[in-house]
Design goal:
It is a single chain. By secondary structure, the protein is α+β, with helices and mostly antiparallel strands. The chain is built from 23 helices and 18 strands. Strands 10, 11, 12, 13, 17 and 18 form a six-stranded antiparallel sheet that branches. A five-stranded mixed sheet has the order 2-1-3-7-4, with helices on one face. The radius of gyration is 29 Å and the shape is elongated. The N and C termini lie far apart (about 90 Å).
Length: about 650
């Protein structure tokens, strides 16, 4: 089998790997991750004359990584918008193409022997690499440019090196660190090469690109350094510790990176080739960048992906060099590769047993995050579990964005920790709770990397119209205490203290929790999801329903008038007797002392000036005296959030109404 055939087969297998990972709950090709939508939003604003901002009133340098994540990827999204293509599909397609090209460039570095395809094979089985190829982000493009730059460095193609590094800086400002690494590699090799690499055409383009980025940011009123670069310079021991745990999780969860020990051992013994040494140094430089910036919350260890072509090339060089010195150890090399590839493939599998083989516990241990990482990112799992949850969450957030687009006023302001899909699809003013896509008060934006905290109380005290407090598909809404605890632990810069709980409770006082119907899938907008969405809404907007009790002899009608958006609620009607007994109306019209709700999961539509009857009931004989309601009988009706605890402060969906006899 020749090398071209192997390359084609590898590319086909990699496509299959991508499709096996990147699908939704019904088996269709999944939509991009939430963070990818940030660039979609900025690109659309650019095309439609709203400037380079994330949202109205935001920083005009948003496209220059003051809110967005990539200048070049934002321009790609803008180009798709300009030609009326779907940015969602366009970026996914380009990401796959970029990943395939990254593999091809890596393969060009291999020796003319079968073991020289090691790096490419390791990329094929890498779940991290496959998961980022179609997630709509710039990661695959960034990785491709790294692979192209290294190929150009090794072939001493100065022009191509300059072009690839210049585009690398424009794709992600952290690429400038790699530019410095490439410059160091070029300088260290100049005295050992017959044809030294011309430095001016190789490094003038990336330096000019970086200077243009800095000048552009300053011209738009932003700091010269992007939030990512500023975070890199702010040495934080907690962030470094989290980054190191991320490295451990990446190695444990994907197995193949453990092979990097081979080139490390060889370079310490001065036996690694020049290509392997440079690849190892540049790959470890990127790992160091990830560590110093606090790791990454994205699934499948996506932050480390740009280093994989370099690190796997170093592994390849180590194996080739080892076989050249000791050919008899070829079986050991192939055995190591087989184990690494099997481990990587297993990392892409949903944890479970392989037939009679009890592999489930091992795969679960591989995918489980360390406690510190789980606390930081709010998820116990990484690997395939995390990727599946991320794809479902992105789909859920798109559904919430569609609801907000269609149901809430155009001028509404919305706060959420997940601004991407909601901002892009709702077309409303969406504020990122954590200040990455723009902050309240015009403060500089924060990096999308590392663990970000903010003053949650101050954000709520600014009184946005809506808050998206959670995204998980669940039937039971969060209680008042659960919501406070979750937000303080996950997002607040102070944390969960008694004083902060009190301040958070006061900040939540003007809000009501509402359940809303969101579509199950974007392609089926009229089909509601199995679980409602939950929003916090300002009470002062006066968009809640109003109940009224209309007596007619021994019968009573419960009517509702609703002027707001679609909302899901449950009707509770109680009868309190003069003796103090409390009875609940059941859906069948009878009364019981057991708590019950007369109407469950009722969808409320805007009624205009009309009132709609929710239920009509006849008082039972036990509540009558001489054919009339008991004197002193008190009927109370109220609407509650579905599946909520009636006593919870966030349970009420409207003001209760009473009818006294």
């Amino acid at each position: 089998m020749n090398r071209t055939t192997v390359l084609i087969l590898a590319l086909v297998l990699f496509l299959a790997h991508i499709l096996a990972l990147h699908h939704d709950q019904v088996g269709a090709f999944a939509l991009p991750s939430d963070i990818a939508h940030v660039n979609f939003q900025i690109g659309r604003n650019l095309v439609h004359g709203q400037g380079t901002v994330w949202s109205p009133g935001g920083s005009p340098a948003a496209i220059l990584e003051e809110g967005g994540t990539s200048l070049l990827w934002g321009l790609v999204a803008a180009g798709a918008e300009l030609f009326a293509w779907s940015p969602v599909r366009t970026t996914a397609l380009l990401g796959i193409v970029a990943a395939l090209l990254a593999m091809a460039f890596t393969a060009r570095l291999s020796r003319e022997r079968l073991v020289g395809m090691t790096a490419m094979v390791l990329l094929v089985v890498s779940g991290s690499f496959a998961s980022t190829a179609a997630d709509g982000s710039e990661t695959a493009l960034f990785t491709m440019l790294v692979a192209l730059a290294f190929l150009a460095l090794e072939r001493r193609r100065a022009t191509w090196l300059g072009i690839s590094l210049g585009l690398l800086v424009l794709t992600g400002s952290l690429g400038f660190v790699l530019v410095l690494g490439f410059l160091g590699a070029a300088l260290m090799g100049r005295g050992k090469e017959d044809e030294p690499l011309p430095l001016l055409p190789a490094f003038a383009p990336p330096l000019a690109a970086f200077a243009a980025l800095v000048v552009g940011r300053l011209a738009h009123g932003a700091p010269g350094l992007t939030p990512n670069l500023a975070l890199l310079l702010e040495f934080d021991l907690d962030a470094v510790r989290l980054g190191l745990w991320s490295v451990e999780g990446m190695v444990r969860g994907t197995v193949a990176p453990v092979l990097v020990l081979l080139p490390i051992i060889q370079v310490l013994r001065w036996r690694l080739s020049g290509t392997g040494t440079r690849a190892l140094g540049l790959g470890l430089l990127w790992v160091l960048v990830v560590v110093l910036t606090g790791g990454d919350a994205r699934p499948m260890h996506a932050a480390f992906v740009p280093a994989l072509p370099l690190l796997f090339t170093a592994v390849q060089e180590a194996i080739v060099g080892g076989l050249d010195r000791r050919p008899r150890n070829e079986w050991l090399a192939w055995a190591s590769l087989a184990v690494a590839c099997l481990g990587s493939v297993m990392a892409s599998k949903i944890p479970g047993d392989l037939g009679p083989v009890r592999s489930g516990p091992v795969l679960m241990a591989m995918a489980r995050n360390r406690p510190a990482v789980a606390e930081a990112w709010g998820s116990e799992w990484n690997g395939r579990f995390a990727l599946t949850e991320d794809l479902r969450s992105s789909e859920r957030l798109r559904a919430v964005g569609i609801f907000l687009r269609d149901q809430v006023p155009a001028e509404a302001s919305i706060v959420t920790p997940w601004p991407g899909a909601i901002g892009y699809l709702s077309r409303k003013r969406v504020v990122d709770l954590l200040g990455r896509a723009g902050r309240l008060g015009g403060e500089p934006t924060r990096s999308w990397r590392g663990r970000v905290r903010t003053d949650v109380v101050a954000v709520l005290e600014a009184r946005p119209d809506y808050v998206v407090p959670m995204l998980a598909g669940r039937m039971r809404p969060p209680s008042h205490a659960e919501l406070i605890e979750a937000w303080l632990v996950a997002y607040d810069e102070v944390g969960d203290t008694p004083e902060r709980r009190a301040a958070m409770a006061a900040a939540l006082e003007p809000y009501e929790l509402v359940a809303v119907p969101v579509p199950e899938r974007e392609e089926e907008l009229t089909r509601p999801s199995a679980a409602p969405g939950f929003l916090l809404r300002l009470r002062s907007l006066d968009l809640g329903p109003r109940l009224s009790l209309v007596p007619d002899g021994t019968e009573v009608g419960v009517l509702v008038e609703h002027g707001g958006h679609h909302q899901i609620a449950e009707l509770e009607l109680t009868a309190e007797t003069p003796a103090g007994a409390l009875l609940y109306l059941r859906p069948n019209g009878s009364f019981s002392s057991t708590p019950a709700r007369a109407r469950t999961e009722t969808l409320l539509f805007p009624t205009g000036t009309r009132r709609v009857e929710l239920t009509h009931m006849r008082l039972p004989a036990s509540l009558l005296e001489d054919g009339h309601p008991l004197p002193g009988l008190l009927l109370t009706a109220r609407l509650l959030t579905p599946f909520s605890d009636s006593a919870d402060p966030l349970a009420a969906a409207c003001e209760p109404v009473t009818l006294a006899y």
